[in-house]
């Protein structure tokens, strides 16, 4: 299941997960001052195993533009305020196969709730391939693979609106995996177990 980060303990868990994955991969650590939403993936047993962070996107100020000129793409230019950046998509190594759908569902859920049509991102090529082949995520590669801050990445644009407007096309998409913001901690885990 997934839930939004709502307190200091969950923020510490969030930071612990993505920094562990980044160090394992050899990436540079970049903490964000601004986030629209931070999400954690939690197992039914209550283990925090994954993260994603949705950040505001600005053609002038977003650091992601130093890796690729996203602001020059027509879809980005025409998106107005309906675009954001998705960052820190991470799963701890033992959980990478089973919990990708939770991570992806959380991204679609947040995009729909915040009325975001597109996400820009820098993806590791193997993860990008899994999203395309296994999950059929609608995305556009905006440039070629390039080395950036510790690894090769590909600049991509996710069509989030296509997913939340056509949920029936994605059998992995399951909003029931969301732990209500009214529940937290052990209550959230119990809620997740009741649904499983």
Tell me what you see in this structure.
The structure is a single chain. Strands 1, 2, 3, 4, 5, 6, 7 and 8 form an 8-stranded mixed beta sheet that branches. It is built from 6 helices and 8 strands; from the N terminus they run βαββαβαβαβββαα. Helices cover about 35% and strands about 25% of the residues. It is globular. Mean pLDDT is about 90; it is low at about 180-195. The protein has a single domain (about 1-195), classed as Aminopeptidase, CATH 3.40.630. The protein has about 200 residues and is of the alpha+beta class. The chain has helices at about 10-25, 75-80, 100-115, 125-135, 160-165, 185-195; strands at about 1-5, 35-40, 50-55, 85-90, 120-125, 140, 145-150, 150-160.
Topology readout:
Elements lengths: L1 E3 L3 H18 L11 E6 L5 E9 L17 H5 L4 E9 L8 H15 L3 E6 L1 H9 L5 E3 L4 E3 L2 E9 H6 L19 H11 L1
Parallel strand pairs: 4-5
Antiparallel strand pairs: 1-2, 2-3, 3-4, 5-8, 6-8, 7-8
Task: List the defining traits of the structure above.
196 residues, alpha+beta, Aminopeptidase, eight-stranded mixed sheet, 33% helix, 24% strand, globular
How is this structure best summarized?
This protein is of the alpha+beta class and 196 residues long. The protein has 6 helices and 8 strands; from the N terminus they run E-H-E-E-H-E-H-E-H-E-E-E-H-H.
